[in-house]
Design brief:
Layout lengths: L13 E7 L4 H11 L7 E8 L2 E8 L2 H5 L4 H5 L4 E7 L14 E5 L2 E8 L5 H10 L9 H11 L7 H11 L5 E6 L2 E6 L8 E5 L2 E5 L2 H7 L2 E5 L4 E6 L4 E5 L8 E2 H7 L5 E2 L2 E2 H15 L6 E4 L5 H11 L7 E3 L12 H7 L4 E3 L1 H4 L3 E6 L6 H12 L4 E6 L21 H4 L2 H8 L3 E4 L2 H5 L10 E2 L1 H4 L10 H7 L4
Parallel strand pairs: 14-23, 17-20, 20-21, 21-22
Antiparallel strand pairs: 1-4, 1-10, 2-3, 2-4, 5-6, 6-7, 7-8, 8-12, 9-10, 9-11, 12-13, 15-16, 18-19
Helix pairs in contact: 1-7, 4-5, 5-6, 8-9, 9-10
This protein binds iron/sulfur cluster.
The site of iron/sulfur cluster (SF4) has 11 residues, from helix 8 and helix 17.
């Protein structure tokens, strides 16, 4: 039987969730994390406040696995707030010690933090902390932020000021939710690399990486947390907002819209579904193809393929079947896990392929190894021609802001021209969407509000010494 191998994709990062002022905060956080599971499958955790006391439960695995054995009372006995996290390790290795939320004693407070993103100066700060005698448990940026905050803390004060000062001294990408006995905080780095939205559910205030988590619990989307904003929710549900830092420009991650975020939600105030279809339409306009059928590589290529088919007038067909019961195993964090998961099946449907000139829509090509395998499988099924269209530009540079690309030398588009890549992956033709074409597909902000460094090499925040090393350590595929 022909099978497709799935491994050649950038890896997800993390998902965060927080809800303040709700008696079932923990259970709603668990549901919110289910909706964010695509952002990380290595570990999950929930920190909650109950009767003025803090409880933390985290473990390795999927949300369903990590919380399965907790007694019903843990969920039912009323709480006042909770934060949660699902993790893929962009910085820091995969182990329980790096699972989040991180919780520490802070003077008279117990402070917990959940973080999405990667700090460009995380390695340098870590070294400084160690030289000054800090004892670090794991190797995540999140722990670094907490240590820097602890050094800024004034005895007796609420930890928020110390956290704010710490965030001013870190660089790179962070969307965070934090919680202590005094309330909850949500904040975003000044460029707004990673998403973070705010919602409401009756009297409760909710924060989440994506609106799909709000939908999951029936909460209403209110707005995005702004880049550089620090929002405090106190124990009575009062909200206080402050712009604590300013970068001069935004740099939202365009790849969230191209690939990472769920298509059924809003990210950076854009409908992910609409943007992906627009990418497909633009791709058809820029790179038309004489083919019999438009076919996506599921799941990432589906909406771009719908847009491509719509604009080109070619029929759309699902000729590749994905086994949804196996899960997104390619986001396994280390080599061994990925190799063992490599046999995940994307099965071709021969009847849909045989004798056809297929236009295959991909959302990205990273190393190119699995693209070649897919093309070969289509040909084995009797495809007359295989043309590949990619709904974003070639990836030529790594990401330092929380997406786990391979290092530059491994990126196929960094080493070869497009016609050479076409020969390597054995397609009849290959085209990528242009950078300007991709950026023209966002509607609610301007192209200059987006980061596209992995396509252009233009970094909004320069990585500092140690930043690249952390990435390379974690991508040993
Ligand atoms: S470098 Fe690419 S993946 Fe990283 S934040 Fe920028 S657009 Fe997103």
């Amino acid at each position: 039987m022909n099978t497709f191998l799935e491994s050649d994709k950038p890896k997800d990062h993390c998902g965060i969730f927080g809800i303040a002022n709700h008696p079932q905060a923990a259970d709603l956080t668990r549901l919110g994390l289910y909706a964010l599971q695509h952002r990380g499958q290595e570990s999950a955790g929930i920190f909650l406040l109950r009767n003025g006391k803090c409880e933390l439960h985290k473990g390795m695995g999927l949300v369903a696995d990590v919380f399965r054995k907790l007694p019903k009372e843990w969920w039912k006995t009323p709480q006042s707030m909770a934060i949660g996290h699902v993790r893929y390790s962009t910085a820091g290795s995969s182990s329980l010690v790096n699972a989040q939320p991180f919780a520490v004693e802070f003077d008279k407070w117990y402070l917990a933090l959940a973080h999405n993103g990667t700090l460009t100066n995380g390695g340098a700060l870590r070294n400084q902390l160690k030289q000054n005698g800090a004892i670090l448990q794991g190797n995540t940026d999140t722990e670094v932020v907490l240590h820097v905050a602890a050094r800024n803390h004034r005895m007796g004060a609420k930890p928020w000021d110390a956290l704010k000062t710490a965030l001013k001294s870190v660089a790179g990408a962070y969307s965070i939710v934090a919680s202590c006995e005094a309330g909850m905080v949500a904040a975003r780095d000044p460029h707004g690399f990673r998403p973070l939205v705010m919602g409401s559910l009756d009297q409760a205030v909710v924060f989440a990486s994506e609106t799909t988590a709000l939908d999951m619990i029936g909460a209403k989307y209110e707005r995005d947390v702004k880049p550089g904003e620090f929002i405090i929710v106190d124990n009575n549900g009062n909200i206080e907002s402050e712009m604590f830092t300013f970068a001069g420009r935004k740099a939202h991650c365009i790849f969230e819209l191209v690939y990472f975020a769920r298509p059924d939600g809003l990210v950076f105030e854009e409908s992910v579904y609409e943007v992906r279809k627009a990418l497909g339409r633009k791709l058809a306009e820029e790179s038309p193809v004489d083919a019999d059928v438009v076919m996506p590589v599921p799941d990432g290529g589906v909406y771009a393929a719908l847009g491509f088919a719509e604009a080109s007038g070619l029929p759309f067909d699902l000729g590749i079947m994905r086994n949804h019961y196996i899960g997104r195993t390619f986001i396994q964090p280390n080599h061994e896990a990925r190799v063992s998961a490599l046999r995940i099946k994307l099965n071709p449907i021969s009847e849909a392929i045989k004798g056809k000139r297929v236009c295959l829509i991909e959302d990205s090509i990273v190393r190119g190894n699995t693209s070649r395998e897919r093309v070969r499988t289509l040909r084995d099924c009797g495809a007359k021609e295989v043309h590949m269209r990619v709904s974003c530009p070639p990836h030529i540079s790594p990401c330092y802001y929380g997406i786990d690309f391979p290092n530059k030398e491994e990126l196929i588009a960094n080493n070869y021209e497009i016609d050479e890549i076409a020969k390597l992956i054995q397609v009849d033709s290959l085209s990528y969407l242009s950078l300007s074409g991709m950026l023209s597909c966002v509607k609610n902000s301007t192209a200059s509000d987006y980061c596209h460094a992995c396509y252009s090499g233009e970094y909004a925040v320069k990585p500092s010494l140690g930043c690249e090393r952390e990435h390379v350590d974690d991508v040993d595929e």
